[in-house]
Amino acid sequence: MDILSRLQEADENLFHFINTDLSAPWLDVFMMLMRNQYTWLPVYAILLFWFFKYSKEYFLLVLVFSIITFALTDYSSASILKPILARTRPCHNTLLYDRLVANCGGMYGMPSSHACNHFGLATFWFLYAANIYRQNWYWLWAWALIICYAQVYVGVHYPGDILAGAILGGLYGLLTFKVFYFFAMASAKRKKKFLLQH
Questions:
Q1: pLDDT digit string (tens) for 43-90?
Q2: Predicted TM-score of the model (pTM)
Q3: Which residue in 35, 57, 69, 70 has its CB near the most CB atoms, within 10 A?
């Protein structure tokens, strides 16, 4: 058995363990809530409020780069990589029978767009808070992990899809933060120079 076959087998076994062996009726309801975008609207609202209240200087820039991060992660994962990698979701695999709690979605699942999007935003926001305000928002990783775990639990993604999406999203978040930081520092220097001249 080659390395790819071994990885596929391990991924299927871990998927089955999370999706079936660790399942419970109350968890079905909880995990469906965790992957629902409307469940997290209060989190987004609180973040926007925090950025506006405590970070007015960079508010618009943070908002723009958050949107850019999401656009990059979502488009590259869903429209570019999934058709290229063409890895069938577990819920579309007729040879792999497991529970399906949610709608299956598209045919392909590698990388997970949920994982890519949420880890991309979590990385960008974490680096922003850590570098600009010296605050470690570790809860962002828990937020992203819960959503990603729910994707496997309900039966629409392999753990490998999640891992690939999380890595890709993290790289995008790092990239967009680097670009954001360049613009933010350039803006701060221009403001300081203006104040010194006047």
A1: 888 998 998 988 888 999 999 999 999 999 999 999 999 999 999 999
A2: 0.91
A3: 69
Quote the tokens at residue 143: 């937020």
For tokens 């104040």, name the residue: 195
Unique residue bearing structure tokens 């497991």 = 98
Long-range contacts of 94-98 (CB under 8 A, 24+ apart): 96/12, 96/15, 96/16, 98/15, 98/16, 98/19, 98/20, 98/155
Q: 30-41, pLDDT tens digit by residue? A: 999 998 888 988
Q: What's the gap between Cα 108 and its chain centre?
A: 17
Which among 29, 31, 21 is positioned nearest to 98, based on CA atoms?
Answer: 21
* pLDDT > 90? residue 189: no
- Between CA 92 and CA 187 the distance in angstroms is 50
Contact call for residues 98 and 156 (beta carbons, < 8 A): no
Quick one: which of 76, 103, 84, 81 has its CA closest to 92? 103
- What digits encode the pLDDT tens for the residues 105-123? 899 999 999 999 999 999 9
